[in-house]
Batch of 4 targets.
Target 1
Amino acid sequence: MSTQDLVPSPVGPVDVEQAEAALVERYPRLVRIAYLVLPPSFGRNRRVLTAHALVQRSLPRRRVPGPDVPGPRRAEDAVDPGYAYVRGEVLRQALVAGLPLRRLALPHRAQFPPLLPHVWGLRLFPRVGGADELALDQQLSRLSGAGRAAYVLRGLERQGDPEVLRVLAAAGVEDPAAALAEADALEDPAPAGPAIPADGTEPQQDGPARVGEQGGPGRTGARDQDGHGGSAAVAPGGPALPRRLSGAALLESDEFDPCALQARPTDLMRRRQHARAAFVALVALVVCGTLLGLPGDGWGRNGAAAPSYARNPAAEAALDPAAVKKADPAAWPAATRQDFSVWPARGGLTGDSALLRRALAVWARPGGSVQSSATPGTPVGPPMGPPQLLFAGRVDAMRVVLFHDGLRAVRYAEPVEGTAGAALDFARTDAADTVGAAALVVSRASGNVRYLMAPWVRETAVRDLLAPAKGPRPLGRDADGVTDPLPTPAPAGACTRWNALQVRDREGLRLLTDLGEEAPARLLWGPPSAASDATGTEARKAWARTACQLTAVRAHGVRSVNAWRFARQPLPEGAGQATWVCTRAETWRGTGSRVLAQFLVPSPEVPAALAARSEGSPACGVRDPRVLAGVLWKAPGGAWFVLAAGSPDFTSLETSGGVKGRSDGPLLTVRAEAGARADLDGTLPDGTRRAALR
C-alpha cells in the first residue's frame, strides 16, 4: 500500500506540515526502525539505501484524516500524531519490501531497489559492532518481518504489548499476536566481553589522556588524527569497560545506525573492466559504422587482430590443469634454495582435473560472486604461464587449491556442498626464503586458522605471546602437512591472548604470527643489523608487552616484524627504569613499512604504550637504525614530565613549543604541565637535526 492511499491516522488527523516536521526531527530514528525491520538478506548496503528511501517516501501528499470514531485516550496516544503516522508508514513499507516477488502478482514499489537515494562507486554500511550486536543481528534475521517490527517497537520505541499490537495491525500485519510471540521468544545475545570501538583501535582524544598512579605515557612530538602536532598521554590500564547491554539496548548501538555510515569502494577491478568494455564497444561501434559507409572492400572480420585470448597458446597452457607444475617430492632435501618452488604437491585432490580447471579459470576470470582479496601491492591478474600446484584437498568443508607462480601464492576455495561462496586470495611471496616459505594459510573458519607447513618443518607448536613464562603447546599435523585448528588473534577486542605459530626446522626455532593474510609474518628481536628469531627469554618478555600493537599492521602485506630495545631511561622520583622499544614491520613489496615507538613502564603487567608511529619511514631499520620518540608521563607523586629517548648515536635532545628543555646525550627529562604539548628533535654526531617520529 502506498502513502498516497491515505489510511486514516489512528491517533488523530495529521497535516502535511506536521508530518514533515516529525520526519525531519526524528529522521535518524525512523531510518533506524526501517533498517532493523528490513530483511538482512538485502545486504547492509541495500538495507541502508532502502531504509532512507522508505522514510523519505512516507510523507503524505495532503492532510490525513483521523479515525471516524475516536476511541478513549490512552497513555500511548500521547505520542506526536505526525510521528506516529510517519512511523506507521515506514513500518508498512518495510514489511512490504520484505515480501518475495511473485510471478503473477503486481509488485509493490517498496519491493524494488530504491532509485533515490543512490550512490555510485561506494558501498555504505553502519559501523561494525561487537559480538553482542552480531549475535542480536543473527537472531533478528531468523524472525519474520512482523516479528522484527514487534521487537523494534517494544525495544526501541519502549511500547507496551497493547500498543505494539495496535501499531502492527495498522501497518497491515495479519497476525500481530504471532509477531509479538516471535519477539517474546527472542533472547538477548550471550555476553561477549567488553565493548570496544568498531575499528579495533583505542579511543583517541585531543589532549593528554592521564596515566595512572604508577605513571603512563602519551605521545610527544606526534600528530593526532586531525593533523595537529603535540603530545598525548594514555591511561595505564586502558579504557573503562562498560557492562554488557541487553538486546533492547543494543538496538541503539552504531551497528544498527544507518545514519552513521562507513564507506568502502565497490569492486574496482570489475568497474574498470566494465568501463574498458564500454569504451571498446563504443570504439567498435564507431569503426563499424565508418567501415559500413566506405565503398568497396574493407577490413576482414578480424582485421590485423591476433587470435582471441581464449585461443592464445600461452593463455591456454596457463589454464590447462594437465600443464600445472608439480615439484618432485624428493627434490627439497637436496635443493640449493628451499622455498615454495620445491614444495611438493600435497592433498587428496591433486588429481582432480575438474577442480584444478575451475580454480585456474576463476583465477584468470573471477566472476562477480567470487570473494576476492589481495595483500597490498599484489597483482591479481591471471598467471603468465602454468603455475605450480602446492595443495589440493578438502579442509573444513571446503575444497582448497593452493598455487604458486613465482611471485604470488594464490588460494582458491569452494564449498563441498553447493556452488556459492567461492573465494580467491592473493599474497605476494617473491624472494621467500626458508622461513618465509615455512607455512601458508590453507583455511579460515570459525575464528580458527589452519596452516599448510613446508616439508622441512620438523615440529609445530602454539605459543601465547602474552604468557612468556608458559611453554609452547604441541600443534598436530596430518599426513599432508595441514595443522590442527589454531585460534587466531581477534582483529578487534580485548587483547587477552595472542597465539603464535612456533616451528622448528634444521636451523632452529622460528616464531610466526597470523596477521590476516595468506602468509604468516615472522617475529624477530634485536637491533636491525643483527635481528634474530624472537624465541629467547628476553625477546618473549618484550613481545608479551608489545604483541597487542600488532593490530596496527594487520592486512598490510607484512613479511616480518622486528622489535628491539633502543633505550633505557631512569624515571623521575625514583619510579624505576623505563624501556623504549621500536617495532618495524617490513612488507613483501618493500614499501609501506610501518614503525611503532613504544614506551614500557617498569611494571611487567602493564602493556606497552604507543608513543609514536610512522609509515614509509626508514627509521628503526637496517638502512637507518636511528629512532627518536617522546611521551608525557605522570609521576607517582602527581607531577608531569616530558620523557624522550633516542638511539645511542644521538648527541643531544631538545624540546620546544609548550615545553622547553635540552640535554646532552640520547635521554631527556623535563618538568611539564598537565596537557602540555611540545616538539622534539635531536642532533646526530655530524650536526644533522632529526625530528621525532610522528
Note: The longest strand covers residues 558-570.
Target 2
Amino acid sequence: MTSWTDRRTPLPSLLARSRDRWPGLWVSLLSGAVAAVLGLGVFALLAIALWVGAPYPDDGPDGALRVAAASWLLAHGVVLFRTETLSGVPAPVGITPLLSAVVPVWLLYRAARDVTDGEAVEGTKAVGGPEGAEGPEGPEGVAAGPAWCGVAAGYVGVGLVATLYASAGALRPSWAWTLVCLPLVTVVSAGVGVWTTRRWPYGALRVLSREEHKLFRSAGRAGLAGTAVLVGGGGLLVGLSLVWHGEAVRESFLQVTQGWAGRGAVLLLAVALVPNAAVWAASYALGPGFLLGAGHGMGAWSPTTAPSPLPPFPLLAALPGSGGGPLGWAVQAVPAAAGVVVGWCLARGACAERERGWDAVWSVTRTVTGVVGAAVVCGLLLGGLAEVSGGPLGVAALARFGPVGWHVGAAAAGWVAGVGVPVGVVVRWRSLRGMRKRWVEDRGAEERRVGGRRAEERWGEVPVASAVTSVPAPVASEPVEGRADGAWDDPDLIPYEVLAAEVDPFLPDGPEPTPSPPEGS
C-alpha cells in the first residue's frame, strides 16, 4: 500500500514546475535581494567609517551595523524608536531624509529594469545561475509579471531580515510601519522600472484618442516641470537663508557635537536633509508653511515665529522670522514661476503639431484643460513630497514636524492653475499669431515660385537676364507673332521680357550690339 508521503511531489519537481510556469522568477528574486544587500552595504559603509573615526564610541561594530540597518529602513519611511531617553519612554523618529531615500529607490528601479531588459539574465548565466530564454540577439528579458513580483519579493525578504537584526539596537524599527512602508516603496519603485521598459500605461490608455493621449502626456510632463520648479525654488530659498544666517549656522554646527567624527556625522545628516528643507521652503512660499511642533506653524504670511529654544542644528538655525512684509511678497516668485513654466509648456504643446494643419492646433478650451490637469499633477506630487518630508521627532510638543501634505497640495494646484491658465492662453495666442504671419509669408513665397515655374514651362527655360539682352523689344511697325495692329489678342500671352522692358526703365531698349569679329579670322 502506498503511503501519503510516497505520493507527495518532491521538492525539485515543484521548483522545476514553478520555474516553467514563471520563467525568470528566480533571476528576479536574486536581483531584488542583491539590490537590498547593496543598499544595506552603502549605509553600513558610512556607519563603520563614522564609528572608526569616533574617539570614544559607545558601542562596538555590531551596534554601528544595527544603526546602519535602522537608517536603511528609515530611508523607506519606517518610523524608528529611540530607547535611550531621559524619561525612559521610547521616542519616535519619523523624518525620512529624502536624499538617503534616493539610494534604495534607484537600486530597486535599476534591478527591475535590468531584469526586464535581460541584462540581469545575462549576468546570472555568466556566474552559473538559472538560465532564461535566449533570443537570436542574446538573452531575452523576463516578463513583466514575474520580474515585478520576483524583485519585490526578494527585496522585501532581505528587508525583513534587516528589521529583525535592527530590533536589538538603540534605534528600533516599528513593525507596523515596516510592514506598510517597506512593501509599498518596493512595489512602486520596481513597478516604475518595469513600466519604463514595457510601456504599460500606453496600452491601458488605448481608449483615448490620439489628441487626448497627447494632452494627457503633455499635462503630466508640465506637472513634473512645475514640481521641479517649486522644489528648485525652495532649494534656492534654503541657500539664501543659510547665507543670510551664516553666523548662527556656524555656531550651531560647532555647538551640536565635538570632534571631527561627530561633526562629520552632523554634516552628512544636514546634507541628507537638504531636499526636505527645499520642500519645506516651497511650502513656506506657497502659504501653508510647516509645523515646528504642536501649535507652532510658520508660513509666508504667518505672524508666529519659531519656538525657542530650538535644538542646535544648522538647518534649524537658518529658519526665517515671522512672515509678512517684503519677505512674504518676495517668496511668492517661486509659485508664480512654477505657474509660468506650466502655462508655457502647455501653450507650446498646443502649437507643436501645426505642420499637420490648423486643425491640429489645440483650442483654448483644450489648452486650459491641460493646464488644470498639470496643476492637479503638480499638487499631488508636491503634496506627497510634503507629507513624506516631515514626521515626528518625539512625543507631545515634538510629535509633528514639517508641512501638512494636503494643505500644500491644494495650495500648489491653486497657484499653478491661477497663474498657468492666463499665461498659457496668452502664449498660445502669441505663438499662433507668429505662426500665421510666417505661414502667410511662406505661402506668398511658394505662390511666387509656382508662378515662376509655370512661366518657365510656358516660355522655355530661358534665364531672364539673357532673354532681356537677347530679345529685342517689339515695335509697332514690325510684325510680331500673336500681335495684330500693335495690340495683343491675349494679355496673358505677352512675354515677360516685353512687360519688363515696358515697365522697368532700367532695362535696355534693345539688344546690345554684337561686336564684329576681327578681320582675318
Note: The longest helix spans residues 405-459.
Target 3
Amino acid sequence: MSTLDGIVAAPDTASPQALPLASRQDGTYPRPQMLRPQWADLDGTWSFRNDGDDPAWRTGFPDARDIVVPFPPESVASGIDEPGFHPVVWYSRTIGRAELEAAGHGDAAPRLLLHFGAVDHRARVWIDGQFIGEHEGGHTPFSFDVTDVLTATATATAGTDAGSGGDTSDAVHTLVVRAEDDPHDLTQPRGKQDWHEDPHAIWYRRTTGIWQTVWLEAVPTTSIEYLRWTNLDHQTLRLTVRLAGVRTGGERLRVDARWDERDEHLATIETTLGATANEFDVLVPIARQANGQAEDELHWSPEAPRLVDATVTLLGSGSDPTPIDAVASYFGVRTVGVDGGAFLLNGRSYDVRSVLNQGYWPDSHIAAPSREALRREVELIKELGFNAARNHQKIEDPRFLYWADRLGILVWGEAPGAYAFSPRAVQRLMREWMDAVERDASHPSIVTWVPANESWGVQHIATDPAQQAYARSLADVTRAIDPTRPVISNDGWEHPDSDIITIHDYEGDGPRLAATYADDAARTALFHGMGPSDRWVLVGGAVDRGQPVMLTEFGGVNYQPGAQREDGWGYTTAADGDDWIARITALYDAIRASSFLAGSCWTQLTDTMQETNGLLNADRTPKVPIEQIRRAVTGR
C-alpha cells in the first residue's frame, strides 16, 4: 500500500480528497507531476518463468520461481540473476481486496487503472485469462482500464494457486504479464543493451521485462488523465489537460497555483470546458512576474530550484459545481534557448557543466536499486560540482526527474538508440521517442532533447540522404511536439540539423585539447574539416548558423583504486589517484580556456561494468575525496 505517507498536505482545496503537496513529495509516487492521495504499489515478489512460452500460462502458472519486481531477471536484485538471453519471460501475481482498497477504490473513484512504468520491450497483459491489452516500447509507460475485470465477482481464481506472488489467502484475481525482448532485434530502441551474450566495449548487460514500478490507481468515472506544463515566456504557462471517461458537458476546470516556499498564492484560473473535446489548453499567467525587477525571485535554476505547486480540479456543471476529480502537480517557471553562440537559461548565458549518466547499477542494472538511490544520484552529481546531467541512451525513471527538478540540475533527455536503419526501426524509435517527450515535457529540469547519438541507427548519415532525412525528421518532430527546448539531431558528430553543435572528443592531453577549442579560428577549422573521431561535424547541407558549441563527451580517464577488473578500460589510463586528478584538471583547464565552448559533459559519473572511467566507483563511492574531484571539475 502506498498513500504518500509523510508528505506535506496541500492547503485546503475544493477537491474530493486531501491532496499532497507535489513539490514536497518523498519520491515514491511513480508519476510525480500528477498525484492522487492513494495508490497501490504492485512491486515486490511475483511469480516468474523464462523456461518456455506456453499460452496456457495466461491464467497463471505452477512450478514458478520468485522474482522481485521491478528488477530485471538478468540482475542480482531480482533474485533470478541469469544474465543470458531472455527472448520471452512471464510474470504473475494476485490482486486482492487489499490492493483495491490501497488504490482508493470506492464510490468516489470507481474506475481502476493498471499502470506499468516500463516493460522492455513488448508486453501483453491478462487478468484471469482475459486479455487486457499490449504495449510496445521498452522505456515508456502504459496503462489499462481494468475496472470490469477487477470488480467482477470473485471466481475460482480465489482458490487457485497462481504461483508464489501476492497474497493468495486473499486472492481475487490473477495478473499475468508476458514480455518479449529479442536480444538480436537491432530495430528495437535498446540504448546500451548488448546484443552479444556478454558485455563488450561500451555495451552492458541487457534488461528484459518489467524494470519500473507497476501500480494500481482508482479514479472517478470522469477523470483527469494527463497534464502538461509549458513555459511560454517568463510570465505565462500553458497547461494542457486531457480527460478520460464519460463527459456530461459543461464541466469546469480550476487551476490553483501556490509558491509554498513563501506561502504566496500565485494564480487561480477557472474556465468552462468545451462540450465535446477531451483535451484542453488553459493559460496560467503569473501576475507577480509582470514586475521585471523581481521576476528572478521565482525563476527555476540549478542554483535556485524553485517549484510552484498546483492543484488542478475538475468540477461539475451548474451554478454550484461539485468537485469530480482533483490532482496535485508542480511546475517551474523558467525558459531555455540558444542565441549568439550561448546556451540561455532564463534569458541569460549559462555555462553547462554536465556529466554523462548511464543510470546503471551493478546489482539492478537500469532499474534503480531503490527509490532513495534516485535522489542520491542527483545529490552526487551536484556534490561533484556539476550543474547538469546527460542521461545517456536511457529514458530515466520519472522519479529521478522529480529530484532533478527539486534539488536542481539540468537534464538532457536522450532516446535509447536502435542499431539498424530500416522502416521498422524508424517507426519504432519515432513512436517511442514521441511518447517519451510527452511523458517528460513538464519537467523544468529537462532543457535539451537528444533523439539520436553518434549516428547509431544511421551509420551512413554522412553520405545517405535517407538517413539524413530521418535524423532531421526526428529533430523536427521533437520541435513540433515541444518548440520550447533546443534539439540535438545527432549528438557527437555528423549533425544534419542541430540547435547546439555537440562534439565528442576523447583527446587525453590537456594542451592538445585546448588548442582544438581555443578560439574562433579553431572553431572555423572544426566546422570546415574532419572533426574528432574522423567524423564530419556537419552533414547533409547543414551550415554553421552560429549555434552554441559544446563538448558533450570528453575525459573518460580509467582509474581503478581497488580491485582491478582485467577487462576494465578508459580512453586514457591514470597511474594513481594523483595522476588521475591531474589529468581531469588539465582537461577541464582546456575547456575553461576556450573562447567559444558553451558547455561540456564529462565521461562519466560512475564506473559501469567494464567501463572503469567513472568519477565514482560502481557502488557510488568516490575514487578519491569528493572535494578533490569537485575542485578539478569546477576550478575552485
Note: DSSP finds ten helices and 31 strands in the chain.
Target 4
Amino acid sequence: MLAKKGQLMLLLAACVSIAGCSGSNGDASGNGNNSKNANTGDQGKKQEEEAALPMINGKYDPPVTITTVKKIATPTTFKNGETADDNVHYKWAEEKLGIKIENLWSVVNTSDAYNTKLKLMLSSNEKLPDVVFAAGEVAQMLIDSGKFREVGPLFDQYASESWKQAMNEAPTAWYEFTRDGKRYGIPNLDYDYNNDPVLWVRKDWMEKLGLPEPVTIDDYEKMLDAFKNNDPDGNGKADTYGTAVGLKDSYGNMFSLSWVFGAYGSLPEMWLEQADGKLGYGSVQPQIKEGLAKLKDWVQKGYIPMEAGIWDQGKAGSFMSAGKAGSFTGPFWSEAWPMGDMNVNNPQAELTTFKLPTGPDGKTMHYGSHPYTGALLINKDMEHPEIFFTYANYLFDHVVNPEAGSEYEHGWAEGYDWAKVDGEVTYDLNKVPGGGVRVFFYSLLDGGPRIPSLNVSALVKVAANGKAETPYEKIWSGFVPPIELESATDVWNQRDTRFKNAYTGGSTETMKLKWDYLRKLELKTFSDIIFGDKPVDSFDDFVTEWKSQGGDRITEEVNEWYTSVAGK
C-alpha cells in the first residue's frame, strides 16, 4: 500500500535523525528508540546527531553519493544520447532525493559479462561498490568473501512499511542469502508467477481441425496427433509437429515439458518436499519414469522433433513461430519471446492459451518461479547504508504502484516509458516519440521495485473487468498485447498446482565436487531414453548411480540447510 503524504514526512523526519551505520561491529544504528541507543547516554546521542546526514524536504543537502556497478540489457536500453552513467533516472535521483548514483563500471550483459566482471573484481581485490545486485553462485561468492555486511537488521530498521509488505509476500526469499541465521542479501523482488508456464496453442489450427480444449494429457495427445498428421497448415505436406520444445540444457525449466512429469507426480531438476517432510531431488523420484515413457512415445510418434534434444528455447520458439509446430510450453509472455516473429512469418496465425493438462488420475504439478531475481548486497565499508534505503523506500512508497494524480501516475518519465500523443496517453513504446525505453531497468533495484502479487493480479483484473481502473493496471494493460491478459489468467487459475524449488542455497560441499558430473549424467540419461535407444527401465540404473556417486550425501546436505533456514 502506498504511503500517504503525512506518512512520507514522518519517514523523512526519521531519516534526518538516523546515525551513521558503518561501525566496526557491523550494527545498524537507530533513531534513538531502540534498546542500544536507550543506554548510550547523552554522549551517544550527540555522536548520532553529528553523524546524521542532513536532509531538507526529503532530499539530502548537500547531495550524497552511492556507488554501484551496472548491467545493461542491450545497447538500445537508452535514448537521447544517454548512457548508464548519465540518464534520466540518475538525474531524477539527484534532483528528487539528493542522491548521486555513480557506476564503478557498466557492461552490456552478453555472454554473462556482468557476472564475469563481478568475479574479476573480487579475485583481483578491486574496490567494491556500496550496493551491488548479484544472483546465483556469484551472490554466494560475494557473501562468502566477507566484504558485505549483514543486512537483516538494516532492513528491519530502515525499510518502509510498503517495502516490508512487499517482502512479506515472499518470506522464503531470504533463505538463499542467510548464513547461520543472519541475512546478508536483500532479496531483489520480482513479480510472482512471472515465469510460470502455460500451454500455448495455434488457435487457427485448432479451429480448422475441430479440436477441443486439451484438459487432460490424453486430450493433449490427441491434439498432438492431429497437428502432426492432419495437415493443419494446409500445404499438403507432412511437415508439421505437435509441439516445439528445447531440451538441450534442461528438462525442468519454464520452457520445457516438465509438466508432463508433473502429471505423474514429480518435477525434474527441483528439490521438492516429500511425504516425510524432507527434501528430495525430483529427477530421481520413481514417478519420473512414467514421464520419460510418455515423452519417448511422443518422439517415436513424431509429435516432438528429434532435434528438440539439441535445441534451446530460442530455437524451439523460432520453430513455433515459423509455423512448424502447433503448441509450445512457456510463460504468459512467450508470444513476445521466444515466439516473437509468429505473425511476421504467418500473418493469419492466431494463438490461444490454456492451463496445463492434468495427468491420468487428475494429478498436475508444474514449475513455479520464485518471486525474486537475486539479492542486493551492501558493502561493509559503506558508511551510510541508510542512503540506499531512502532511495528504495521512495520507489516502493510512490513509484511501484502509483496513485492517481501523482507524478508517477503514467510511469517513470514522460517521453521515455510513456507519452502524450494527439492528446492521449500511450504506454506503447513504439508510439513514444523517438522510441520508448523502460526506465525501471536503470534502477539500483534490478528491474525496478516490484510487488510480487501485483503484476499478474492486475492483468487478471483487467481481463475480468474488461477495462483498467488503477494507474498500474492502465500502464501494464497499455503495453501488453491482449493475449497476455488471457495467458496471465491461465497462470492465475492454475496457481494451486505450482511448485517452487525448495532448495535455494548455494552449492553444498559435495555439490562442488560432484554436481557437474551428476547433472551431465542426468541430462544424458533423459536424452538417451527419450530420443535414443535406451529403454525406460534404464532410469533405475541412473537413480542407483546418482545416489552412489554423491547424490545421497548431497541430499543430506540439502536437508541440513533446509533445517537451518526453515526449521524443518
Note: The longest strand covers residues 99-108.
